[in-house]
Specification:
Blueprint: H1 4-28, H2 41-72, E1 76-77, E2 84-85, H3 90-105, H4 112-123, E3 134-135, E4 145-149, E5 152-158, H5 165-185, E6 191-197, E7 224-226, H6 228-235, H7 240-254, H8 256-267
Parallel strand pairs: 5-6, 6-7
Antiparallel strand pairs: 1-4, 2-3, 4-5
Organism: Thiothrix caldifontis
Catalytic activity: Endonucleolytic cleavage of DNA to give specific double-stranded fragments with terminal 5'-phosphates
EC number: 3.1.21.4
Length: about 270
């Protein structure tokens, strides 16, 4: 069983390695010359690294961190991607579109649970008539993190903590397509899919109070997890996000990550 102390060791190691590896890759790229390179070359390089981190934090840090904690907590991390039918059967496609249209309009026929159950119901048809050909999912509909434990498959995608309405709509569709992909191939299986917002950026209010429309049409809790809902699940610990924030502050206080970055910067002068 993962302890808080062991979890902190995993978190600090993952943060340091992920950011250091990203910085090393960033510095290897041939940057275009700017006049500020003649005055503050080191600061320019740091700005480039930080800017890149800000836009790729999901794949650079959050995903490796979630997988590392989940492994320590007894999950199997599936490294392959969830495949989609090469040709989506018409009955499944029609069901998906009906659900998506209803959810977008807010008509109230389908919520998260009913949507999941209807997709799985339609896919029972494939028990006796299995789909023969599967392929990589369309761009943008892949799974970032696939975990498995106790006969249940879990699918996650980590998103920006400041989503707009098109993003929220796309997230809702993504969850539904994951269920369609999974149950069309494994109609007797069991799946749970969630969009993940890794932390709450809002001071003094909940994440959903700070999101346009309360997050709809994406359904809080049943289709999306925020902060500790996800980190507690991965680690099996309570208030696991506090371990992450403490690890960040510890690394800053110790200066070890800063030293690693400085060494890289000096190497690439």
């Amino acid at each position: 069983m993962l302890t808080r102390e062991n979890a902190k060791t995993v978190v600090k190691s993952t943060i340091k390695s992920s950011i250091t590896e990203f910085a090393a890759k960033s510095l290897k790229k041939k940057a275009k010359f700017q006049i500020l390179d003649l005055i503050i070359p080191k600061e320019r390089k740091i700005r480039s690294i930080v800017g890149g981190l800000e836009t790729s934090l999901g794949t650079t840090l959050w995903e490796p961190l979630a997988k590392a904690l989940a492994r320590e907590n007894g999950f199997t991390v599936v490294e392959s991607n969830l495949q989609s039918p090469a040709n989506m059967p018409s009955n499944l496609n029609n069901a998906l579109q009906s659900i998506i249209d209803d959810r977008k309009r807010g008509n109230g026929l389908y919520d998260a649970k009913i949507s999941h159950d209807e997709i799985k119901r339609v896919c029972q048809h494939f028990i006796n008539r299995p789909i023969e050909t599967f392929e990589a999912p369309p761009r943008g509909k892949g799974v970032d993190i696939w975990l498995s434990k106790d006969g249940i498959d879990y699918f996650f995608d980590i998103k920006t903590v400041q989503p707009n309405l098109p993003t929220l709509t796309g997230c809702m569709e993504q969850v539904l397509y994951w269920y369609a992909y999974f149950y069309s191939k494994y109609p007797t299986g069991s799946a749970t899919a969630r969009i993940v917002f890794p932390y709450n950026p809002n001071s003094g209010k909940s994440f959903w109070q700070g999101v346009i429309g309360g997050g709809r049409p994406l359904e809080a809790d049943n289709e999306a997890w925020v902060e500790n809902q996800f980190w507690d699940f991965c680690s099996g610990l309570e208030n696991a996000y506090e371990i992450i924030t403490t690890s960040f502050t510890d690394l800053r206080a110790s200066g070890e990550l800063e030293s690693s970055i400085d060494l890289l910067l000096n190497t690439h002068d």
